[in-house]
Amino acid sequence: MKMDSKQSKKENIREKLLEQQEDAQLVRKIVVRIMIAMIVIIGITGIGGYLYVNSALKPLDPNDKKKRTVEIPIGSSVSSISNLLEEEGIIKNARVFKYYIKFRNESGFQAGKYSLSPSMTHQEIVNSIKTGKMMKEAALKITIPEGKQLVQIAEIVAEKTDQNPKEVFKKLNDKKFIQSMQDKFPALLTDDIYDKDIKYPLEGYLFPSTYDFEEESPSLETVISKMLKQTEDMLTKYEEQMIEQDYSVHTLLTMASLVEEEATEKVDRAKIASVFYNRLDKGMPLQTDPTVLYAKGEHKERVFYKDLEIDSPYNTYKVKGLPPGPIANAGEMSIKAVLEPEKTKYLYFLATPEGEVLYSKTLDEHNAKKAEHITNQ
């Protein structure tokens, strides 16, 4: 009996030891798994943090070179400057910019108005506000509205720079001058501008915008170079779409100029573009009045039936497809509409005297609206 009792105790002790060993192994497994999970989490967090910081250190938008005026008040701290730059859309993250400044031990920032863009690197921004490269007040401003033709732009430039409009227009069509501009902007001014049917090579290439100049009498080369640079910078944003849709700069600006000339403030340009595309797909002439006026070299409110008979490659009532080149300068809204047209089945549109644009799928429907809204046709 005593032997059995001792053996039973030994077995109980052995079982407890085994249980303790199993518990210890289980605890070790749990601890190992927890440690692995923590390492993974820390690793993921670290990688995520690195990627986030690395992204925040890059320019907000490398393609957006448009300058913005940012005013840094007197006594601004590094934190307030960082927050201001983020609010103005110049940098991605204020906190990362602040630590960038502290890490590089930068200081000596000066108050004032600065001309900055989202395409600038952190160091370029720091250098600008550190060295006090403030935006100078413009000595001359030239505003070129949308839908202006080269002859009108020449008049605006001539008036602002105190020159003869005819001489400015003549220079804009001078072969040597055009070649000098082409040498500066070869990707923008391709040989398409020299097509035999083109009236004026630079037509449609001078972007509508307000231009600031530090000198009161900048040279024509300076003025036109700035306008061409603006066109080039703007088109860079749509480069991928242009490649995908097989659009050359010349064709895009030509189509966009038609949309611009037909558009009103109330009109949906993407819908106007869809009508042009639908007509081109069906092999129909575009029949847009502004091309007739451009062919005639006139500016008037109405086009009469006798005007439609003009013999010109720009007359889209007689010639199918696009005209040889742009008939005016197009704003970004019209360019975007050409690249992102609305999907419709409309083949006609009619602008009423009130500025409303009416769309139709058939000629009968179009004529009915014409009879209702346009008198004395």
UniProtKB/TrEMBL annotation:
Localization per Swiss-Prot or TrEMBL: Cell membrane
GO molecular function per UniProt: lytic endotransglycosylase activity
Site annotation Important for catalytic activity: residues: E262
Transmembrane portions of the chain: 30-53
Gene Ontology CC terms: plasma membrane
Reaction catalysis annotation: a peptidoglycan chain = a peptidoglycan chain with N-acetyl-1,6-anhydromuramyl-[peptide] at the reducing end + a peptidoglycan chain with N-acetylglucosamine at the non-reducing end
One Gene Ontology term from the biological process aspect of the record: peptidoglycan biosynthetic process
Highest taxon of the lineage: Bacteria
Keywords: Cell membrane, Cell wall biogenesis/degradation, Lyase, Membrane, Transmembrane, Transmembrane helix
Pfam family membership, one: YceG
Membrane topology listed for this record: Single-pass membrane protein
EC number: 4.2.2.29
Family listed: Belongs to the transglycosylase MltG family.
PANTHER family reported in the protein's UniProt record: ENDOLYTIC MUREIN TRANSGLYCOSYLASE
The protein, known as: Endolytic murein transglycosylase
GN (gene name): mltG
